[in-house]
Amino acid sequence: MAQARLSIDLSALCANWRMLRDAAPSAEAGAVVKANAYGLGLDRVAPALAGAGARKFFVAVAEEGAQLREILGPGPEIHVFSGHMAGDAALIRGATLIPMINGIDQMLRHVEGLPGHPFGIQLDSGMNRLGMEPAEWQALRDIALAQGPRLVMSHLACADEPDHEMNARQLNAFRALTDGIEVPRSLSATGGILLGPDYHFEVTRPGVGMYGGLPLVGAQPVAHLSIPVIQTREVLPGETVGYGNTWTAQAPTRVATIAGGYADGILRAIGPEGWLWAGETRCKILGRVSMDLIGVDVSALDGDPEWLELLGPHQGVDTLADWAGTIGYEVLTSLGARYARDYILS
Ligand SMILES: *Cc1c(COP(=O)(O)O)cnc(C)c1O
């Protein structure tokens, strides 16, 4: 069998969620499960989080929300960041979703299309991505509040940099827009939770930290990726490995070719910096990452390995992200469809 194995540790996921919940004890911790739960599998991740006590879920678009409702059944609240888009009314009603209304156009669409149906409000406190602008909110505020929104939220642009002045600026803007209203408020994702109590309000929206990524320092690894070795060979000094001849052996080298590549979401850019693990031995990637294959130096091992580990206790998504010049979020959401996936409850 030459299929790489992606094991997702649901116990670690839930432990990370509890860690984020306990970091903001005055707030209710929700859970962000957009993009198929950051690539790890909505159908398994969401029920595990519900079992751990999460009652408020957040997704990017209504279609994800409808899928999540199928998985969770009635009860948990499902909020949709993109709000109420044209054509979404049937999905929103059918799956009892809570669209986070982003502007006057969405507000009108919602009250006309689904009068009395729950909604929330998303405000722009400076990121200029989604949400009502302050002037728009000013104009709409009394009408919107009279309809009983479930939640008022905004999103921080720089929360992963605790010293960034943008954090306090957005906090002040959010307060100015919402102080005195009787509706639960939410400002913080993983990074914001770690900024401290001023940022917690009534509801938090952790995502990446639950999945084992920074900025949650000390998160347990959730994704474990092991890749089978297809073939090993001896390469002599002066010989090369892989496309473009980018790696040349200086000494006799034992090379293992493993069954994973960029088509599996193993970013091609990790090649020059990347390592895998055989037990406690670190093994360097040789040459370029191919679509389905990677060459690895296994000279340091006593025998030929059957499997090598790319993600696990030795290195997580943020290590791979550093090699590739990206962020753990992108490593997670790139994880491919070709893996044999299994879910661990330890
Ligand atoms: C993705 C997202 C989150 C979760 O962010 P993390 O950094 O992954 O914790 C929260 N809120 C909004 C609006 C988001 O888009």
Here the CATH topology of the largest domain equals: TIM Barrel
The total beta strand count reads 19
Distance between the termini: 25 Å
Largest sheet descriptor: 8 strands, mixed
Spatial extent as radius of gyration: 23 Å
Give the strand content: 15-25%
Shape: elongated
The share of residues in helices is: 25-40%
Number of domains: 2
Based on helices, strands and strand pairing, what is the structural class?
alpha/beta
Number of helices: 11
Q: What ligand molecules are bound, each kind once?
A: pyridoxal-5'-phosphate
> What is the CATH class designation of the largest domain?
Alpha Beta
Mean pLDDT, all residues: 97
Catalytic activity: L-alanine = D-alanine
Keywords: Isomerase, Pyridoxal phosphate
GO molecular function: alanine racemase activity
Domain Alanine racemase C-terminal: 222-344
Task: Report what the structure shows.
The protein has 346 residues and is an alpha/beta fold. The protein has 2 domains: 10-211, Alanine racemase (TIM Barrel, Alpha-Beta Barrel), CATH 3.20.20; 223-344, Beta Barrel (Lyase, Ornithine Decarboxylase, Chain A, domain 1), CATH 2.40.37.10. It has helices spanning 10-23, 34-38, 42-52, 62-72, 89-94, 104-113, 134-146, 165-178, 190-193, 317-324, 328-334; strands at residues 5-9, 28-29, 31-32, 56-59, 77-80, 98-101, 120-122, 152-153, 185-186, 203-204, 223-235, 240-241, 247-248, 253-258, 275-278, 281-286, 294-297, 307-311, 340-344. The strands form 4 sheets. Strands 1, 11, 14, 15, 16, 17, 18 and 19 form an 8-stranded mixed β-sheet that branches. Strands 3-4-5-6-7-8-9 form a 7-stranded parallel β-sheet. Strand 4, helix 4 and strand 5 (77-80) form a beta-alpha-beta unit. The radius of gyration is 23 Å and the shape is elongated. The structure holds pyridoxal-5'-phosphate.
